[in-house]
Amino acid sequence: MDMPSTQNAELELFRDNVKKFLETEIAPHYAEWEKAGIIPRETWRKFGDNGLLCVDAPEEFGGSGAPFEFSCVVLEEVGKAGFGALGANLAVHSDIVAPYITHLGTPEQKKHYLPKLVTGEFVGAIAMTEPGAGSDLQGAKTSAVADGSDYVINGSKTFITNGQHADVIITFTKTDPKAGARGTTLFLVEASSKGFARGRNLEKIGQHCGDTSELFFDNVRVPTTAVLGAVGNGFGHLVDELPRERLTLAVGAIGAAEGMIALTIDYVKNRKAFGVPLSSQQNTRFEIARMKTELEVARAFVAQCAVAYAHGKLDVPGAAMVKLAATEMQCRVADGCLQLFGGYGYMSEYPISRHFIDARVQRIYGGTSEIMKEVIARSLLGR
Questions:
Q1: pLDDT class for 134, splitting at 50, 70, 90?
Q2: Given 3.40.50.720, 3.30.460.20, 2.40.110.10, 2.30.29.30, which CATH number is that of 125-232?
Q3: What is the rounded distance in angstroms from the CA atom of residue 234 to the CA atom of residue 175?
Q4: N or C end of the chain: smaller count of CB under 10 Å?
């Protein structure tokens, strides 16, 4: 990215701080958290205490007001370290929930929620997906019915990242079922609300310690002041915020791919086959060269899109392209690296195995690769 030298220096100093924090506060415990199936709640406070949550939130609400690149550094380093579940949870909190409130919230909402998200006092989640509505959100059934000065919310959500720890949930609802996309509204629902309940922490094939939950809304009554953005424009707000969500997934993919390649290079230099290091075998060398090239091509595109986003110029098709390119690359690298580890790559004690299983969902959440292709195709060919 083209940045002034001073900002470059500050960015690298910040990167060093992120690495040190991950090495001291996360790495020694991460394997235990994976077995337990959840990241301890106090970890959010530690991230907040070290200034690593919502780093580009406005200073007046407790954030650093740092450029977007600083938020990217957090996700990139978490991905590089192989903490895929943590990266997903942080991205939802810092790069989806906080920006939604920053961009759409009333002054009162910003004042109430943003400082708590910055410190980790509150954990944020966004509830869109339902048991019968994933990529097609117009099929959502969760309703919000006006009742005097309140709305009453009923329905259920699933696959909700941060669901077990969330204190505030941006909830996608139908306020006018007959109006299609124009009849949807976002609400800020606090977990303390009467009628709100968390379901079980869902078991996944990867990202084990990243809590993913079912959420239930049984006559949850919220005031009209809980509306986020405009009534009837929930779907439009989601579309407006998609570029950052998909870009951050791409940023995490770059970090993860870099981490996997570094692990694999170290392994093949030390592992011998037929009396010589694997690194001297042509197939190994060619595979490493291929994967590194794919990574750098994707990195350049992600950097280009990050600059575009920072200037308000990253559109929905562009975000779909970068998400598609980077996450598909990540999965190819995960497969190629694990293959070079041979049987050891299939053993859970080797970090490459966690990288592999954590990568797979990147092609699904935030919009599947197939949906990304359709978004891109529509921008070029129409419906």
A1: low
A2: 2.40.110.10
A3: 9
A4: C
Can you name the residues that pair with 228 across neighbouring β-strands? 186
Beta bridge partners of 144: 153
CB 74 within 8 A of CB 94: yes
Tokens 């006018």 correspond to 176
Q: Say how far apart CA 141 and CA 373 lie, in whole Å.
A: 26
Topology of the domain covering 5-122: Butyryl-Coa Dehydrogenase, subunit A; domain 1 (1.10.540)
Q: 101-129: string of b/e by CB count within 10 Å (b at 16+)?
A: bbebbeeebbebbbbbbbbbebbbbbbbb
End-to-end alpha carbon distance in the chain: 34
Residue type (1 letter), 24: T
* Residues 287 and 295 sit within 8 Å (Cβ to Cβ): no
Domain with CATH 1.20.140.10 in the chain: 235-381
**What's the distance, CA 126 to chain centroid?**
11
pLDDT (tens digit, 9 = 90+) per residue, 156-180? 999 999 999 999 999 999 999 888 8
Active-site position among 245, 258, 287, 294: 245
pLDDT at 3 over 60: no
3-class DSSP state for residue 108?
Answer: helix
Is 214 catalytic? The answer is no
Residues of the chain with CATH 2.40.110.10: 125-232
